[in-house]
Amino acid sequence: MSRRSGVLEFAVLGLLRESPMHGYELRKRLNTSLGVFRAFSYGTLYPCLKTLVAQGWLTEETAPDDPLAAPLAGRRAKIVYRLTSAGKEHFEDLLAQSGPDAWEDEQFGVRFAFFGHTERDVRMRVLEGRRSRLEERLERMRASLARTRERLDDYTLELQRHGMESVEREVRWLNELIETERAGRGRAKGRPADQGRDDTDPTDTTT
Amino acid sequence: MSRRSGVLEFAVLGLLRESPMHGYELRKRLNTSLGVFRAFSYGTLYPCLKTLVAQGWLTEETAPDDPLAAPLAGRRAKIVYRLTSAGKEHFEDLLAQSGPDAWEDEQFGVRFAFFGHTERDVRMRVLEGRRSRLEERLERMRASLARTRERLDDYTLELQRHGMESVEREVRWLNELIETERAGRGRAKGRPADQGRDDTDPTDTTT
DNA sequence: TTCGTCATGTAATGGGTTACATGATTAC
DNA sequence: GTAATCATGTAACCCATTACATGACGAA
């Protein structure tokens, strides 16, 4: 009945904010533009769209046989979903939230992806919340490791070490982002954490 | 009815292989010894244990009131689960599998955690399978990024860059592990990928 | 005309959590 | 005696996938 996913709802509203789309295209965007995340199946997406329409946040616009009615993709478009003003408002509300939900693993990615539409103080709170969440996790891992280190074999140990390093690395990343935001270079232009990297050649990254 | 989780089943069998335990302790172990992974709730664990008993892989041993019957933890032990020989056999079968399932995100972690009980050629196949899986993913990310780079804002771009770097980092980690295995230092002693790190003092974490 | 992609959906199932219910044991 | 932790379980729900069903369009 409800089908309230959180991440999916947020991502759909955010993507439709920019331009109306039909379900099939929406799903592709979830894999590419926002593509670092999981790809939702149609069995998830379409029912979700239905409920968003029922909530009054989207409208369905059917473009049945008229080829002139679908100039967007150049091809047939069956059901185009458009964000209503109520939906826009709701999305703004979601964007303004900076509570614990935004720090969780599943939510944080989408939240970050729409930072371009997010107020700066909210961005700061989300980043800092995320960081302290990860630092707590790190401390728990360290404590647990200290207690059980002797009883673990090499592979288990290596796995834990690598896991902790991954978290530590994300903390460092967040630190850079927070610093950039603090310096005021994080609005919309001037890519955050720019250190002369080249996306096509990511050598010498760690070590 | 079935409640066949894959990861949980594998982890439970593997943990019980070392010593019999009751459910509560089993769950703690899943968070600590194997703790890099998700923590399963009791609502998942107990039904799972029931089905494993029904399969004949575990036996329930109730130690009702006798304090002498529970020398393991020094305290009351209600239902102790013990691996049967059939269960042991089944676990060995699972350990020997090196198919695509073992390369997926959810399975790989547990598989790696039990590498100490895994044959060397199986370890190699799993590691290499995992690596090529990640390299495919990386290529898809690169292709998608090349197609959509111009249309993306700074934050989305930064998110993708960080995501790709994470995957690249894991590939490098796998490369080290594979090299170590190949050199023959990966059996049980001689910790893999040892580069003079010290687990107890992971300073230089932040900046 | 057949194949690949576009496009939309539904029913069954899977895998897991939350909230709840219960009660024993230990420590204070 | 009361709070925390140990210990076991169940029912209701949640989120999402899989498999299936349907069909239109474009290109070979």
From TrEMBL, chains A, B:
Start and end residues of each stretch annotated as Disordered: 182-207
Key word Iron present: no
Transcription regulator PadR N-terminal domain location: 12-92
Sections of the chain in a coiled coil: 124-165
Biased composition, class Basic and acidic residues, residue ranges: 191-200
Source taxon at top rank: Bacteria
Keywords: Coiled coil
PANTHER family: CONSERVED PROTEIN, PADR-FAMILY TRANSCRIPTIONAL REGULATOR
Name of the molecule in the record: Helix-turn-helix transcriptional regulator
